Q: What sequence folds into this?
C-alpha cells in the first residue's frame, strides 16, 4: 500500500529503528548526571550532536536538539527577535513559509511586532530582490524556507543570504523539507529542521544558531541544550535522528536522481491522463521527490478518499481538506488553482511500479469525483448564439468549492464570445479558483466587487 | 549494577518498550491526516489519551501530551497566568517546587509579574494555612508539587486545593514524582507530569487542565493537542508512555509496600552505620521509594564518585555537585544540612540484596571521603580546660563546603562549654550547614554578621 505523503511524515528509517533500540538500553539516563549511566548518555548525546552538526554544516556547539521542528522554528524566531530587539521589531518572511513560521510571525505581531511578507511568483519562488526590498534598518530577522513543503519549489537561499548579510540582518532558514537531501547552501544564520521528515522518529528537531548571532531564549531558564531547549533530553530519539540523517545522506544523491525520474513521469503524464489539471510548483528548481497538481471541478477531500480507497495516501492543500475551509496559504500566495489539489511526496525506495499504479488509478478517481459532482465535459465554446444574453449572473451563495467554478464552467457557453458571466459567491476559495480557472480556460478575469451578500466575480468569455 | 536514581529518570519499563516497538510500525504518520496511516495513528493517539486520562483522573478532552514534564509545567503556568490576567498577576508557589516551576515563576517575575513563595517546615512540607496566608485577591495561580523530588515528602494537596477553591484561585499540581504511585487526591485545577519518571520513554509530558479553568496558551498557534502543545505528535512515545503508566499503576500498591520496607531499612540503618548523618524529609508522609540523607564533613561530589565506583548510582543536592556551587534550594528551604547529601530513589523491582549491598558499601565510602578530607573523629567535649580562650575566631575564607564545618568541628573543643567559636566564611553553604551542624551536635547557633570579606557565623558550645 504505497504511502506518498513523506513531506508530512516519513516512515521510520531502518537505521533509525536500530539506533533507537540500542539507545533505549544505553541512553535512558540523564546526561547531566555524573554516574556511569549518565556518562554513557552524555557520550551518546555528544556523538549525536557531532553527527547532526556535520550533516547541517555547523559546529557542534552551535546546534541544539528540540522536541520538534516546530519548536526549533518557534524558539529560533523568538530567540533572534528578542536578541536583536534593539535593532528593531520587524520580521520578514516569505508568503509561503510553513505554518510554524507564520504562526511565530503572528505571535510576534500580536505582541506588538511588525511583519512583512515577501511575495512569490506563480511557481512559489521568492527572489533576492524581493527580500532586498523588504529589508529595512529596523528588520530584526528574515526567514526563508530552503524549499517549499507544498509544491517543492527550491528557494534561492544563498542569494537571499547575501542580501541579508549586506543589510546586516540574520537569516533563519526552515530547512525541514530539504535537509535530508543535502546541507543548505549559503551563509544562513539560524537553521531549523525536523527529524521525522527524514525517517527519524518524531520528537526531535534541530536548531542551529551560528556563533555571533544575538540570541536570547524566550522560554523559562533551563540548563539543558545551552539554555535553548528546555526539558529532559529525549536521547534515544536524538540518537536515532542523527543516525538516520547520516544514513539518508549517504544515499541522497542516488535516491534523488531515481525519484526525480519518477516525479518527472508524474508531471508529464498527469496532464495527459487527466483533463483540466494544473501542475504547480517550479518545473526544474524543485525537490526531487515531490509534485503537486490541482484538478478543476474536483472536491479535494472526496478525491483523497477515493485515492485512499485505492490504496494511495497523499495530501491536499484544498480548502475542503482543512478545518478552516480556506485553501492552503501557499496556493493562495502563488495564485494557482486550489480545487482538487493533490500533493504526492515519495518516500525513499518508492518503486516505478508504485508510481505507475498511482497513475493508473488517478484518472478514474478524478472522473469519478467529477461525475458525483454532476460535471459533464465542459460545454464547448460557441453553442450559444443568436438570442444568447450578453451577460449572465449566477447565484452561487452557499455553494462550496468546487461548485462555484463548476457552475461557471457550465454557464460560460450560454453567453457569446465577448459576453460576461458574474458569479456571486460567499466561498473564500472562489477568489483564488475563478481567476485560476480563467487562466486555464483562456478567458479574461475582470475582477471582483463586494455585494451585500458575498462577492461578485466577473469573467469575460474569450474563446 | 544497581541504579538508585529513578527520581531523576527511570529505566524503560518492559511494557513501554513493547508498546514503543509496536507503535513505531503503526503510529509514525500524522494523526491529523485522513488516509489510513493517519487514521491508524489517530486511533492510537485517542486510546493513549483515554488511558492517560483514566490514570490521571480527568476527562480525555482535558488532557494533552507535551514533549516533557518541563514543557507541561511551563505551558500550564504560562497558560493559566495569561488566562487569568484580569484576576491579577500574583503567582504563589512553594519554596520547594521543582526547578521547572521556579524557572517559570522567574520568567513571570521578569515579565513584571509577582511571585510569593510559601515556606516549608524542616520536613519540606507546606501547610494549607501557609497557602491561605499567601493567597490574595490578585492571585492568578497557585502551584504545589504532589510530593517533593529531593526528599520525598508528600504535600497536603487536597487541603491546599480546598483553600485555593475558597479563594477562587486555580491550583496547578506538579505530579511528576507521585503520578506512578496513584492519582493526585483533591480538587486540583491543572496537573503536570512526566513519562520518563514512570518508565515511559523521554519526550512525553502530560498536561491536564480541568474544564472551566481559564487558559490562554502563550506559544504561537498550532492546531495540535487542542492548541496547547505545538509540534508534530510524538506518537510512538506517547503510546509507550500511556501503556507503561497503566502497567506501573497495576503493580503500584504492591510495589510501594515492598519498596517502603527497603527505604525504612535505609532510614533506620544509615544512622546506625554512618556517624554524623541526618536523614531528611518527612518520616511517614513520603514517597515509598525515596530517601535522602546528609553526612557531616563529607564532600558530596567525592562521595557520589566513591559510590559510583562501588557500583551505585545516586544523586545529591550538595553544592559541590551543582554547577552553581549552591546547595539545592529544597535543602535550603528546609534549613537542613546539605553537605554530603545523598538521594536514593529505588526503581521498581529493586531487591533487598541490592539495598543491603548499598548499606554495606556506604559506611566505608563515607569514612574514606572523611579521611581524604583529614577529618578525624569529632574532638570529644571537655578537653579544653583551664587556659582555653572563651572565644575563638576561624578564618575559613576561600574554603569550600564541607571544609568550614570541618574547621568548626575541630575547633569547638578548644573553647570551654559556654564559650563561642566564630567562623568567617565566603562559602554560601556555611549559612545552611553551620546552623544545621549546631542542631546535630547540640550547640547553639548565635547568628551571622556581615564582614568586609565573607560572613561571620557564631556558635556557642553547649556540650
A:
Amino acid at each position: 500500500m504505497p504511502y506518498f505523503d513523506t513531506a508530512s511524515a516519513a516512515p521510520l528509517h531502518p537505521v533509525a529503528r536500530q539506533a533507537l533500540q540500542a539507545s533505549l538500553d544505553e541512553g535512558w539516563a540523564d546526561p547531566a548526571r555524573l554516574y556511569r549511566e549518565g556518562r554513557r548518555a552524555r557520550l551518546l548525546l555528544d556523538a549525536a550532536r557531532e553527527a547532526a552538526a556535520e550533516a547541517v554544516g555547523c559546529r557542534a556547539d552551535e546546534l541544539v536538539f528540540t522536541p520538534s521542528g516546530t519548536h526549533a522554528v518557534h524558539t529560533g524566531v523568538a530567540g533572534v527577535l528578542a536578541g536583536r530587539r534593539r535593532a528593531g521589531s520587524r520580521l520578514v518572511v516569505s508568503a509561503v513559509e510553513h505554518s510554524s513560521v507564520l504562526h511565530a510571525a503572528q505571535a510576534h505581531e500580536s505582541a506588538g511586532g511588525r511583519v512583512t511578507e515577501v511575495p512569490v511568483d506563480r511557481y512559489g519562488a521568492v527572489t533576492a530582490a524581493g527580500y532586498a526590498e523588504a529589508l529595512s534598518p529596523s528588520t530584526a530577522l528574515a526567514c526563508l524556507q530552503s524549499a517549499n513543503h507544498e509544491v517543492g519549489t527550491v528557494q534561492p537561499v544563498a542569494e537571499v543570504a547575501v542580501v541579508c548579510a549586506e543589510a546586516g540582518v540574520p537569516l533563519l532558514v526552515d530547512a525541514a523539507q530539504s535537509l535530508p537531501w543535502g546541507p543548505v547552501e549559503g551563509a544562513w544564520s539560524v537553521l531549523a529542521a525536523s527529524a521525522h521528515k527524514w525517517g527519524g522518529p518524531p520528537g526531535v528537531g534541530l536548531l542551529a544558531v551560528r556563533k555571533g548571532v544575538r540570541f536570547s531564549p524566550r522560554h523559562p531558564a533551563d540548563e539543558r541544550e545551552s539554555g535553548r531547549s528546555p526539558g529532559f533530553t529525549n536521547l534515544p530519539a536524538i540518537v536515532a535522528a542523527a543516525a538516520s540523517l547520516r544514513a539518508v545522506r549517504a544515499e541522497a544523491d542516488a535516491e534523488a536522481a531515481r525519484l526525480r525520474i519518477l516525479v518527472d513521469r508524474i508531471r508529464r503524464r498527469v496532464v495527459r491522463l487527466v483533463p483540466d489539471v494544473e501542475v504547480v510548483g517550479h518545473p526544474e528548481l524543485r525537490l526531487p521527490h515531490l509534485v503537486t497538481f490541482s484538478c478543476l471541478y474536483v472536491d479535494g477531500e472526496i478525491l483523497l478518499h477515493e485515492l485512499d480507497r485505492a490504496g494511495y495516501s497523499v495530501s491536499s492543500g484544498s480548502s475542503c481538506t482543512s478545518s478552516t475551509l480556506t485553501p492552503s496559504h501557499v496556493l493562495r500566495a502563488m495564485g494557482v488553482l486550489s480545487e482538487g489539489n493533490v500533493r504526492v511526496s515519495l518516500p525513499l525506495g518508492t518503486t516505478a511500479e508504485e508510481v505507475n499504479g498511482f497513475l493508473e488509478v488517478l484518472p478514474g478517481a478524478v472522473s469519478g469525483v467529477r461525475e458525483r459532482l454532476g460535471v459533464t465535459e465542459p460545454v464547448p465554446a460557441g453553442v450559444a448564439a443568436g438570442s444568447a444574453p450578453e451577460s449572465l449572473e449566477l447565484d452561487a451563495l452557499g455553494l462550496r468549492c468546487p461548485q462555484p467554478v463548476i457552475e461557471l464552467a457550465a454557464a460560460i457557453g450560454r453567453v457569446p464570445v465577448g459576453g460576461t458571466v458574474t458569479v456571486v459567491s460567499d466561498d473564500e476559495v472562489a477568489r483564488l479558483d475563478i481567476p485560476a480557472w480563467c487562466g486555464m480556460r483562456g478567458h479574461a478575469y475582470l475582477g471582483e466587487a463586494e455585494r451585500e451578500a458575498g462577492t461578485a466575480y466577473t469573467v469575460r468569455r474569450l474563446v
Q: What stands out?
A: Residues 89 and 456 of chain B are 39 Å apart (CA to CA). Chain B has 13 helices and 14 strands. Chain B touches chain A through 61 residues (CB under 8 Å). Chain B has a mean pLDDT of 94.
